[in-house]
Amino acid sequence: MTQIQDVRDLIGMRSRAAYSVVALYAVTCLVSALATMEGMTSVWPPLGSVAVCVGGALILLASPGDPLPLRPSLALILVGPVSCGLVYSVMPVPASSSLQTWPLGASVAIYTFMCVRGRTLFAWVGLTLTIGSSLFWAVVTGQGIAYGLSFSGINVAPLLMATFFAFTIRPLGRSIFELRIQSTLRISSAAAASAVLEERDAQLERLDEQARPLLGRIVDGPDLNADELLACELLEADLRDSLRARGLAGSQLSQAARSARSRGVQVVMLDDRGEVPLDAPILTELTASAAAQLDSIDSGTVTVRMLPPGRSTLATILHNDSDDTHRFEYGPDGTIVEHSQV
Hints:
By secondary structure, the protein is an alpha+beta fold. The protein contains twelve helices and five strands. The protein folds into two domains: 7-182; 244-341.
């Protein structure tokens, strides 16, 4: 059984609520950008920064796999430096508001969840580049490296907490997934055992219903007459079909086989498909066609066989009588594709 372990399932990142959080995150970024336009030389870089952050959040949420695949991880590293660089390129010096550095907090949120998704090192690389871009802007604009570090270095704290959180939840998540797999296996085993017991009970009930009257008649006497002997033979054939042709038991073909046997035709039914089920429409088509063939036969021996899966021929009917032999082959759709006389 394939083990699919994705931490997104553990923390609900596939849910509608998660996408609602991303929508709220997008609104927050947009409001932050629009509310801090004072002194900006252009509105487009801040709006581009919003697009970068929101795109990063969607990538983080939608990318499958655990840990997060390499390509999305590399793309998310750039969210911080790119979004901050866009805003810094048009930001006034000095900044008219401390909120104008909002991309720092927005990108740290991305890096926080990267830790949860197993890419802690990538998150720290991204934060380092983001802080580096802030220091570069502060130095280039003459405000000094200390100033740049004062408003960007504080973002180390949330990422540090996320790192410890990831080291805690990810091993726990592996244990939860393992318990889930074991629980699924136990449920599957219990369901299979229950199905076996139900099938056994159904067979016993059917046997009791059909065989008990005749067995009682044999025990109580007198000797069976011709009709009762025929009923015993037909019952024995029905029970044999239920074991050797389970896929055909209880179908229209079973009734046709019983009628043919009552006319003196020797009918052998075999199901070699094993446990591979046949689609209901195809089985209906096959049994209806085969039943029509049996209804037209009054003598000889007929073998109806469903072939193993994977073959081009679904089933065959072989009819031998005193004159000749006829062979019918059925295609995957349950219809006759070839009729030959041997």
